[in-house]
Structure formats: C-alpha cells, structure tokens
Design goal:
Length: 842
Amino acid sequence: MNIIKGVRWMQKLTDEDVDLKKLNEIKYDFTTNTKPVYQTEKGISRAVVEEISKAKNEPDWMRNIRLKALDIFLSKPVPTWGPDLSELNFDELTYFIRPEDRKSNSWEDVPKEIKDTFDKLGVPEMEKKYLAGSVAQLQSEGVYSRLRKQWEDRGVIFMDMDSAVKTHPDIVREHFGKIVPPSDNKFAALNTAVWSGGSFLYVPSGVHLDLPVQAYFRMNGALEGQFERTLIITEPDASVHYIEGCLPAEELISRGDSFVPISSVNMSEDVMTHSGENSKVIRTFERPYDGTMMTFTPLSSGNAFKLTVEHPVLAIKRKSVAASRKLRNGWRSEVSTKKLISAKPEYIRAEELAEGDFIVYVAPTGSKDSKEMTPQVLKVLGLYTAKGSVSFNKALKTNVLVFSFGKSKKEKELATDLNETIKSLGEQVNITKVRSGYYTVVSYSKKLIELCETHVGKGAVQKKLSKVLMELPPEKQKILLDNYLKGEGNVYVKKPFKSVMVRASTTSKMLAFQLQEIIARNGIFANLSIRKGGEDTILGRMMKRRDRYILEYSENKRFSQVRKVGNNFYVPIRKIVREKFKDKVYNLEVKDQNSYLVKGFAVHNCTAPTYSQYSLHAAIVEVYVKKGGKMRYTSIQNWSDNIINGPTKRSWVEENGKMEWVQGSLGSKITMTYPSSILRGPYASTSNLNVALGIGPVWKDSGAKVVHAAPNTSSKVVAKSISGRGGMSVYRGQLRINPGAYNSKASVQCDALILDNISKSNTYPHNEILEESASFSHEASVGKISEDQVDYLMSRGIREEDARSLIVLGFLDDVLKEIPLEYSIEFNKLVKLEMNKYGAVG
C-alpha cells in the first residue's frame, strides 16, 4: 500500500529563474478570504472538547474517548528531552474551525472561495493525473472527497475521518486509538481530545490499488491548530502500490540534434521539450518496475513508443474535437478541423488515452546558421548521405570517397552535376562509368572526406547528421533534404486523390528520425514506418536484410489525419497495446519546461502538489497492515518557519506484512517525528527512510522506532540529515528485538552532512538486542561537502551554488529515489530553495 500524505505547508516559488533574494514573492503562501461558519473560542477545556463533539454530531462513544484523552493531556507535562517547546502556549490556539456547512464529492459543488484555494494547491489537477482518490481539508474539516468508481466497486473506502465515524462506525471503533492510545504522549492525548478531519482508508482483502490516494491539508491563518486523524487498514493480502511514470531503457529521447536512449541521458545535458526548445536535465531517475507497460503506435508507426500507464502525455481527446456529423460504419468519430486547431493540448495519463486521440509531435524551433554550410556543400552532404561511402584503398594506402549512381539518364545527370559541384569547391574529383553501366564519382580529397565523415559519418547503418546540420535554419536544411531525396527518394502519385507522394528509406534508425525532424521543421509531418529485416535466399545464397526505415510525405496532400498548429503536429493514435513488464524504467526531471520528447512526441516528467501552513501540527497516523498486506506511507512537508510539528505515526504489521515509511522534512521551526513499526507476526518487515533538512534557526528531531516482536522479522532504517546556518539535526531512534524473535534482522544507518562550523548534528540511538539469534548492524557517519567535488563539477561548467546543491542531492539519493517521482522532483527544488534561502550553499 502506498498513501501519499499531502501535508504540504507553504510552498514558495521554486523555479530556477526566481531571484532567491526576493523571497517575499511567494506563490502559495496565500490566505483565502473564506469566512468560517463556526469556530470554538481559543484555548482547550472540557467545554471546548464537548463543543467540538456536539458540532460534529458524534456518537457518545467518540465523545467519551475525547474527554478521557483530555484528562490525560492535562496530566502530562510538555516533553523536555528534545527541543525547547517552552514558547508553545496551548491557550492561544483555536482548536476547531469549520469553513463550510457541507462536504462535497463533486468538485463543481465546492464553494468558489474554497475551490479557489485548492485549485491553487493543485488538487483537481493531481486527482486527474495521478490519484485513485483524494480528500481535501481546509482548517478543521474536510470539504471534498472522492474515490474513483473502479475502486469503490471493489470495496475500497477512502473519505474524510469525520464521515467515516458516521458511515463506518464499527470499523472505526474497532481500530481507533488502539495503535496510538492517548496515554502514549502529550501530543497524542491532545490529538485524541480535539482531533478533526483527516482521512480514513480501508482496503479489502486481496485488493491491490495501483494508484496513490492523497490527503491535502491547509490552514488559513496563524495561531490555529490542525489535529487531523489518519486511520489506514489493509486487510490480509491487500496493497496499494504507487507506480511511477517512467519509460523503458531503449526509448529514444530527442536532444534537438540527435536521439538517444533515455537510460544514457545524464544530468546537465540538454533535451528537447514540448516548447520546441532545449532545456537542461537536472535529475535522472532509474528504478525497478513490475506492472503494465503501454505501447502507443501513432499514425506514423515508426514512432511507436512505450511508457507506464500513469505517465502523462501531451494530448487532445478525440471526443472533445469531434464533428457533429453522424458516424459511418466502423469509423471513429470524424474530427472538426476548426475545433482541433483551436484546442489546447493537455497532459493526460497514458491509461486514459484511447485509439483515435491525438498526441503532439513537436518540431524544434531554434536555429544556428553556419557560413561553412553553403548550398554547394549542402548538396555534396545531401548526396553523400544518400549515395556516398568512405573506404580504405589498400593499394594507395589512403581513404577514398565514392558516390555510387545507377545507369539511367537521370542518375547520369545527377552524377555529372555532383562532379561539377565538387570541382567548384576546388577539390579533385573524377567521374567514371563502370562495366555494368553504373556511374561513380570518386574523390581522394582529405578535406572532402573529413567534411563528410564529420557531418554525416560513415557506414550506411551508422550515418547520422551532425549538430551543425541539425541546427541550421529550415531553409538550409531543405537544400540538404532535397539533395538527399534526389539520391535516395522516389516520387509517385497516390490515388484516388492524386496526391504527389515523396518516399525515401534508410537503414540508419538515427538518420530516419533526424530526417523526419527536418521535414517537420519545414512544415510537413512525414510518416515513418519500419520494414523489418530478415533472411532471404538469392541465387542460392543466404542473405541477411537489415531493417529499413521508410519516410513518406506529400507537399500537396488534400486530405490528412494530421493537423499542424505552430510547430506542433497533432497525430492520431492508431493502436494501443498493454503488456506486462518487469525491468528497470527511467525518467528525467527537466528544468523549467518539465517535459521532454520521446521519438518526437511530448510527454511530461511529472509534477508535484503544493503546500500549506499553520501554527501547530499534532496529528496521529495509525496503520494496520494485516497478514500479507503491503503499505507505503510517504509524507513530505515544507512548512513555514513558525510551525511546531509533533505528529505520532505508528503501524502494526502482521505476518508477512510489509510497512514502508518515507519521510521528507524541510520546513518548520521544530520537528519531532519518529514513525514507528511494531512487527507482530512472523516474517513481517519494515523500512524507514528519512530526510531532515535543518537550515537556519531550526531544530529537526527525527528518527524511527521499531519493535521486533515475532520470529524472522526484518527492519531497515536509513536517516539522512543536513545542517546549515546554525541549524540542528538530531537522529533519535529506538530499536528493540524481543526475546523469542528468532532469526530477526535489523540495520540502522545514520548519515549527517554539516555545511558549516556553526551547525550541529547529534545522534541518539537506543538499541536493545534481546535475542541471541538475531543480527543487527548500526552505521553512522558525519561529513562535510568536499571542495574537490565542488571544483570538479565547476570544471564541467556548473556554477558553484549548483555544484553544492548537486552534492547535497547526491547525499540524499538513498531516500530520494524511494519518493514517488512527481514528489521527488518538487522535493529537489525545495531542497535547493531552502538551502539558498539562508545562503547555505554557494
């Protein structure tokens, strides 16, 4: 199971172009002009707790739980073993604010002022792209909840916690407060007494949810408290698994001048984006994947590409641009050209697209002229691409450039014209007619050979155009293209519309995609198809044929299923195939544009949701992982600097169950969070991956707790912390292997990076290994940024502040690679922002 918890506090602008000295220009640090319909007075008392329960119309059993918890809260002191909490005044907080009288399960029904708030936070967009379900909470109560019907039909329940108390009281009462009782700590007691909102998730036995569900929480003012309650129950063999948007290793990514496998793309390299311009890759992703892979075959079948089901593709739904004419038998709905060319492409999950929908092929827009590339030189290079080769003459012990032509009159004229063109360039050349009647143009000019090899390469299969040629203005590229087609192309009339078609083929895959791009830059979309190679017997000899890549287009085609808008071509999907896939997949984070091109078609590199702010966070998360169940809980926060964060998170893991905590903590003044797992059944396992960033006058006190209470259980804790500008980062962990937990295994790894001499990092591990057959390891390290690493990166053209940020992100990589991709991308940006905010790097 994987739940993404949207505790997102106050996200600031994170684009690289933002002047970090102007941090008062805050994009999401906003307040909404909503007028609450009800709120309690400040402070906590028995009257306030009863008022909250009455306002919610709760059953007596819940009110009694609240009142007992209040007595425990009042009896317990504020913790003093960690950061200083003396400024926290419980009597100054407002514990319950109701923003609206009703809840909605349709986004259209949410009141406008509240809807505007969550539109800014990206709720409807994220729900459309990535989520199986979402719950949105403003201040103390949920205002919206929705679960996709396909999961409702399978018995999954996902809603705000207040509604769950009323609609599923038996399930809630059985599980509420059992893992985290109010007596656990002062903040747990406070939450139990005044809790409001939060989320409830129930997954029936055997159901595997393959999309994340997410809860969004936002406070709308200072001196408010938010005390959401999260209860998650996975019945035996149930799971929610988040599958990230990615591509297989061999998919070709456009760099504008060439196409390379996505697995070979490195950080700081340029890739072509949906805008038609290049942008730098600022992070690459690689991870194992076991799920459904989709193959999209557009009208141009040679551009077929693969990606995972949730990866967003720039597209237009066919039904949104359909003509009003009646459908013909067996035909898809006809398209209104007027509607199509005025439609705005959107990023749509791959699994939501259908055959006939339009995806977007992008022609690069930039150009860079070269004086060397005269019309004569481009003619030679065009014909060399089609007809030329370089070989070594053993007798003369030198390379020779040969152009081979046919024996027709047209071929003779072409050879003669080339011969004269080379002479006009001042190079030695001769033309000959061989015995069979074919013509050859031969040159031993080292300059000419170097020109051809540099800009086109050698060997038919390996030929590809240079960066210089691919960046030329379109009108110059057309000279190259026209001469290539004279040598390799043929023209025919396609009936019944008498369209004059141009067709050419090559055995070079790279060259085929480059030529398609050049044709597109000249305003025409060329269909690319592949004729598969194989073995043939010719005159008694076995011959092996290579794959041929065939380009076909028309300049006067009267009817076309492809539409051109600007530098975009809207190409219909011809076929979609789904298949099981188990291997590594890859993705990129691209600066600013957040997109890249797969064989010319635009896809997104995923986006992230936004954050909110408030004064005190004291949530409780209770997770039940029953026999064979799987659960991943990801929480990423970037709170404002006056927030005190003290949630309690705990799971019970039964036999063969698996619990994964992934936590990223950037903002807040004080954070005290220690996700816990109690391994109650044999072969239960847990992992806890934690990143804490303590930059500036803050205290990050975080860690993990694990109890091995059954045989053959296993646990892994990885904690990464960074301290800078006087910040304090603390790892505080507890690990216990009970007697009788035979053959259990546990490991703890704590790594700290200190950025200066005024910051601190402390480690307080408490490990109790009470079973002799158990194995346990504990590693801890503290380090600083290596100046040698900084110098090396700067020597590669990277600015000093960017170099230091890259080193920091590399230090965090163990955890970042486990965070779902769209959140990892945003997390990277927020790390850079937080570090630059206080001048922690650079």
